[in-house]
Amino acid sequence: MANYYDIDGILVEEEFVPVVFQKAINGVKIDESTEKGYVEQGSKTELPFWLAQELHMRQAVSIRVPACFNQKTRLEIQADAACVDLRSRCPYFYEFGCKLAPLCDKSIGLLLSYAFRIRYKEVLHKAHTTAFAAASKFLMLLTKEETYMYEAAQSSMAAFKKWRMGGPRLQRASILGRKRKPAE
Amino acid sequence: MYARKGYELVKDLANGEKGQLQPFNEDLFNQVVDQCTQHYLELQALIRKMHEESVDVRETRNADHYGALIHHLSLIRNKRCLMAYVHNRAEIIQSFAWKVGLELLELPEEVQEKLSPSEKNYFGKHSAALQSYMAEVGIDLNVDMVPPKDPYIKVRVLDDMGEGILLSDKTANLARHSMHFLKRTDAEQYIARGLMEELTG
């Protein structure tokens, strides 16, 4: 398991996956819309990954491929990976894919590495050259992981510039947040 | 949905700017705890039912077993969310002691308002531990890590700080926008709190 307290680690596992129940289950209300307090064998629903994974391990459900790794997305990524809006499909596209691949479809791994190789180049290129205002549209397409990479690239560039030009060593502690205008 | 409240709590933490504190979400926090109780009661009910039907709770894999399992997993999930919430906030609170100031009253007011009472207590105890350790080894560990080129630096005051503030070698009137030549160790804490800025060149 990744770090127990890791916020992103928790959020990845909340992504939903479609499952088919292989066992009947009593005393749970999976679907809020129905009143019945049980699940029949063979019924389909979507569960968050943390639950689906544990139930899969005990052969209680089988996992199917979620929409963010379907054929349509694959074709789009093959066409031009850098322009695909991965964020709206799954904000943790890579992490989620890595966790999911061994459980339902191994070919997800190839898709991930293909998408990452092309998008990585684009992210670094944009991080080093584009002004912040122009980048905001591009940033909307990035997954969480890619956004961190983008920020890391930018901050290393900023640190390099600061090292070359010099500047104040001491600064307001970043944990206090951005400086606000003092009330006049 | 199962353990959904825990997710909302963590989401609340993630939505804030990275590494910065949000107000303690007492309301949602208690809702997660309530949901844990709910899962626990339903888990117990299912186990009791299995006992009444006199099936072996350890070995049987019937519908009740899987129901209980889902409630058990939801409990664990909610626990992880609660722990992560408290833990990540505690890390930020610790860094206040290291980077901003060792006394609660030295922190900006808007930060103080965001702490829950037990977090204030935690901050106080962490500072006290840090202080006693620094006194024992005889080194100030919360100052800048890079050795200064000059023990004095030029600063500009950004906020009204009052008159006659006691520094290590003098008292100074630190009016807003005035410039001073101060000992670096005196100025560091004020810069960290955003009351002064360092001037270069």
Automatic annotation (TrEMBL), chain A:
Keyword 4Fe-4S in the entry? The reply is no
Q: Where in the cell is it found?
A: Nucleus
State the family named in the UniProt similarity comment for this chain. Answer: Belongs to the GINS3/PSF3 family.
Write the protein's name.
DNA replication complex GINS protein PSF3-like
Q: What is its main location?
A: nucleus
Keyword Nucleus listed? The answer is yes
| UniProt keyword annotations, A-Z | DNA replication, Nucleus
SUPFAM superfamilies named among the record's database cross-references: GINS helical bundle-like, PriA/YqbF domain
Gene Ontology biological process terms from the UniProt entry = mitotic DNA replication initiation
GO annotations of cellular component type: GINS complex
Q: Which InterPro entries match?
A: GINS_A, GINS_bundle-like_dom_sf, GINS_Psf3, GINS_Psf3_sf, PSF3_N
Family annotation (CDD domains):
GINS_A_psf3, GINS_B_Psf3
Looking at the record, the residues that make up the GINS subunit domain are 69-163
Species assigned in the record: Populus euphratica (Euphrates poplar)
| UniProt domain DNA replication complex GINS protein PSF3 N-terminal: residue ranges | 5-56
A Pfam family that this protein carries is Sld5
From TrEMBL, chain B:
Key word DNA damage present: no
Q: What is a single Pfam family found in this protein's UniProt entry?
A: PSF1_C
Q: Where in the cell is it found?
A: Nucleus
Write the record's keywords in alphabetical order, separated by commas: DNA replication, Nucleus
Residues forming the DNA replication complex GINS protein PSF1 C-terminal domain are 149-200
Recorded hits in Gene3D superfamilies, A to Z, give: 1.20.58.1030
One Gene Ontology cellular component term attached to this UniProt record is: GINS complex
CDD domains for the chain:
GINS_A_psf1 (cd11710), GINS_B_Psf1 (cd21696)
The main location is nucleus
The residues covered by the GINS subunit domain are 62-137
Q: Which InterPro entries match?
A: GINS_A (IPR021151), GINS_bundle-like_dom_sf (IPR036224), GINS_Psf1 (IPR005339), PSF1_C (IPR056783)
Q: Which superkingdom does the taxonomy of this entry point to?
A: Eukaryota
**GO-annotated biological processes:** DNA strand elongation involved in mitotic DNA replication
Q: What family is this?
A: Belongs to the GINS1/PSF1 family.
What name does this protein carry?
Probable DNA replication complex GINS protein PSF1
Q: Which organism is it from?
A: Populus euphratica
| Higher taxonomy | Eukaryota, Viridiplantae, Streptophyta, Embryophyta, Tracheophyta
